[in-house]
Amino acid sequence: MTYSRAGEAAERAPGRTGADGGSAPEAARETALEAAWEALVATARRTVTDGLVVGTSGNVSVRVGDTVLVTPSGVPYDRLAPEDITGVDLDGRQVLGTLVPTSELPMHLAVYRATDAGAVVHTHAVHATAVSLLVPELPPVHYMTAALGGPVRVAPYATYGTDELARAMLDALADRTGCLLKNHGTITYGTSLDQAYDRTAQLEWMCRLWLTASSVPGRSPSLLTEEQLAEVADRLREYGQRS
Q1: What does pTM read for this prediction?
Q2: Among 42, 61, 76, 224, which residue's CB has the most CB atoms within a 10 Å radius?
Q3: Catalytic-labelled residue, pool 11, 83, 104, 204
């Protein structure tokens, strides 16, 4: 179960009264929010540990019902505690916490409004950002390109934290679950924090692969065809364990 679905389940629960006098749906929602915040902080810290961001660059969010939990602006992830929970509604109004939400909130909210995303991860990963400086689209050097919906596009540069950047990102994300941001970094989304993070890590790996292969003098990387990617996309739908 994703955290977003957990939040929705909490909101749909029958109206019962808890031992403290509060309603059961409200208690379930608070529990879902607390669990989602804990997972969000762990994911944010992982982006630092895995070298995808430096300092407080990059940001992470997760949706719980109609609330979006986000990393706060300028706060080192290792300092975040349960009481630092920060949340907004889909219009960007702060509904949880007192810390200022990430400056990239417009990008995160744009993804949630336009897709069925349950979580979003934005990084300044080195290899992916380097690729964004060189080409308008990451060439399909590996079959995991299909896991992101096809060759990953590069959104035109726009100032961080602006609606202009959010619009450019959405264009690049059309029929994709991730894109590069020119001279900036990456953004991916998924139904859960784990899936969004895995897509970010996979994108960075593919960018590193292309940069490595394309740096060999006198040689050009072999690329996959649309037909090959389509075949992989079909197989990926059946990948993994059945519940």
Answers
A1: 0.88
A2: 61
A3: 104
